[in-house]
Write a structure and sequence with these properties.
The chain folds into two domains: 256 residues, FAD/NAD(P)-binding domain (3-Layer(bba) Sandwich); 135 residues, 3-Layer(bba) Sandwich (FAD/NAD(P)-binding domain), CATH 3.50.50. Helices cover 31% and strands 16% of the residues. Strands 3-2-1-7-20 form a five-stranded parallel sheet, covered by helices on one side. A five-stranded parallel sheet has the order 9-18-10-11-14. A hairpin with a 4-residue loop joins strand 15 and strand 16. The longest helix is centred in the last third of the chain and has 19 residues. The radius of gyration is 25 Å and the shape is globular. The chain binds flavin-adenine dinucleotide and NADP nicotinamide-adenine-dinucleotide phosphate. NADP nicotinamide-adenine-dinucleotide phosphate (NAP) binds next to helix 4.
Length: 530
């Protein structure tokens, strides 16, 4: 049984890991290269090598109730979608209030993690770190890798013939900070992920023209969903997840199309995805359609050739006088501190059981946390991953045999391609609620809706039709939290609180809508009988 655990990285995944280690009585040392917690949310004015980089205008695309640690929801007056600065402030407060900082060795980079010579019996690891020019080595019983996957830019220059001739400026979205300096330029943004869309929208307010080149298109939707609720609180419900699992693909495709085209017709805007039955991560952007409507952004097909100043596209059109190309082409990842035989990354792909455990280890004392891209928020996902992993380290849960794990990896890989396609941007993609439930089932934290329906029908209905977030996995099992039920029942209140900034006169109690409905029914009845 493991006792001493090394964590690598103090971002959201690292903090979730610290918390779970402490809960399970494991002694954790977390090594963090930078001087703060928060990982990619720790903003820096300048792009730093080996660290994720975000731009000043980033707002989360998950809402606050979906993106919090269960017993640490945001202050009520926090807005539903947070600016990165507010999120980072909260992450820092979380780490301070929970007394986690004492377990983190800042400005310490993990250089290597190797099996100890007696690994097959001890399951131990030798970890070499470097801090302020000094190397140190220590032995640990188990490892949690929480080092993130948005650090290394992917720039597929080979897909852009002529790029070597291009005389303008070109860079990866990771280098982008703000639109200053791009006034009056003609800019080509490549890709249609959330980075491409955010950057294209921001640049289009200063540039003379922005072109957005996409080879496959994408669904784009607003953060604002039915009745003005945050999109993820409406879409990420167990009810919808059930529909996705039982309805035939053709019906799902039709429903998705109807839903996505409610806001605007994607075909008319040139954004319609090529393969509409895939569940690829959609773009969440409130401004992209309007910038297209203004003509400030023009959507283009794939680039086939670049010259000194122009870009030719798959449909034969040419855009001249391009000054800047932004490659918003996503990220790749690697683990320079690990031996290839442990976690081999090939074409952005890794073979890990349930995205966490290498299947071939003699001892289950190693796991990756957060090496995943769920269709929903990362917070509940890494929380459940860390809860399961720490219980495996404590021998409270066991992993299946190597062959069963390999079988699961292969099956999952096939399903992923079927659901999300073969694009590299989708390699870590998973369904959201299904995956959370799968992890929760491993540790006995999956809520039993049927028995709840008899014991507490109001709560059961909320769990089934309401937003599925981290509170739901704290109702039962290890790590059960007394406040979970109340947090679920009061989330609407916290959602509405920051919107109530204008005191309104109490609305008239006269039921106008009811009266209109009755009149309508009467009119139909009259029309029917006369
Ligand atoms: P990171 O935040 O990348 O943290 C990794 C940490 O490991 C870093 O602090 C790094 O310094 C440290 N580290 C790495 N290597 C070493 C080493 N060798 N030694 C020591 N330390 C090391 N997800 C959502 O759910 N909702 C959102 O709205 C959302 N918005 C996003 C917006 C952007 C622009 C991006 C890029 C991603 C977004 N994500 C979002 C996904 C995001 O990945 C997660 O929100 C989450 O922050 C990832 O946390 P992490 O701890 O796994 O990785
Ligand atoms: P991404 O989601 O991986 O998107 C990369 C884009 O580049 C895809 O559209 C991809 O198209 C395209 N691409 C890749 N290779 C290409 C090629 N050779 N030619 C043409 N196009 C190519 O990367 P990202 O947008 O940087 O986002 C990374 C993560 O951060 C995502 O999870 C995202 O949600 C998150 N993020 C969030 C926010 C926010 O919350 N506001 C902002 C930015 C990013 P294909 O699909 O065709 O491969």
């Amino acid at each position: 049984m493991a006792e001493k655990v090394a964590g690598i990285g103090a971002g959201v995944s690292g903090l979730a890991s610290i918390r779970c280690c402490l809960k399970e009585g494991l002694e954790l040392t977390c090594f963090e290269r930078s001087n703060d917690v928060g990982g990619l949310w720790e903003f820096s004015e300048h792009v730093e090598e080996d660290r994720a980089s975000i731009y000043p205008s980033v707002f989360t695309n998950s809402s606050k109730e979906m993106m919090c640690f269960p017993d640490f929801s945001y202050p009520e007056d926090y807005h539903n979608f947070l600016h990165h600065g507010k999120l980072q402030e909260n992450i820092r407060t979380f780490a301070e209030k929970k007394n986690f900082l004492r377990y983190i060795q800042f400005e310490t980079t993990v250089l290597s993690v190797k099996k100890c010579p007696d690994f097959s019996s001890s399951g131990q690891w030798e970890v070499v770190t470097e801090s302020k020019g000094k190397e140190q080595s220590a032995i640990f019983d188990a490892i949690m890798v929480c080092s993130g996957h948005h650090i290394l830019p992917r720039i597929p220059l080979e897909s852009f013939p002529g790029i070597e001739r291009f005389k303008g400026q070109h860079f990866h979205s990771r280098q982008y900070k703000n639109p200053e300096g791009f006034e009056g330029k003609r800019i080509l943004v490549i890709g249609i992920g959330n980075s491409a869309s955010d950057i294209a929208v921001e640049l289009s307010k200063k540039a003379s023209q922005v072109f957005l080149s996409t080879r496959q298109g994408s669904w784009v939707f607003s953060r604002i969903s039915d009745n003005g609720y945050p999109w993820d609180m409406v879409l990420h419900t167990r009810f919808r997840a059930m529909l996705q699992n039982v309805l035939p693909r053709a019906v799902q495709k039709w429903m998705l199309e109807q839903q996505m085209n409610q806001w605007f017709n994607h075909e008319n805007y040139g954004l319609e995805p090529q393969n509409k039955s895939l569940m690829k991560e959609s773009v969440v952007n409130d401004d992209l359609p309007s910038r297209i409507l203004y003509g400030a952004i023009k959507v283009k097909t794939r680039v086939t050739e670049l010259t000194e100043t122009s870009a030719t596209f798959e449909d034969g059109t040419v855009e001249e006088d391009i000054d800047v190309i932004v490659f918003a082409t996503g990220y790749t990842f690697s683990f320079p501190f690990l031996e290839d035989s442990l976690v081999k990354v090939e074409d952005n792909m890794v073979s890990l059981y349930k995205y966490m455990f290498p299947p071939h280890l003699e001892k289950a004392t190693f796991a990756c946390i957060g090496l995943i891209q769920p269709l929903g928020s990362i917070f509940p996902t890494v929380e459940l991953q860390a809860r399961w992993v720490t219980r495996v380290f404590k021998d409270l849960c066991t992993l299946p045999s190597e062959s069963a794990m390999m079988e699961d990896i292969i099956k999952r890989h096939k399903n992923r391609i079927d659901l999300f396609g073969e694009s590299q941007s989708q390699i870590l993609q998973t369904k959201y609620i299904d995956y959370l439930d799968e992890l929760a089932a491993e540790i006995g934290a999956k809520p039993d809706l049927l028995s709840l329906l008899f014991k507490d029908p109001k709560l059961a209905v909320k769990l089934y039709f309401g937003p599925c977030n981290s509170y739901q996995y704290r109702l039962v099992g290890p790590g059960r939290w007394e406040g979970a039920k109340n947090a679920i029942l009061s989330q609407k209140q916290r959602l509405l609180k920051p919107l109530k900034t204008r005191t309104l006169e109490p609305a008239s109690n006269f039921p106008v809508s009811l009266l209109l409905k009755i009149l309508g029914l009467l009119a139909i009845a009259l029309a029917f009988f006369f």
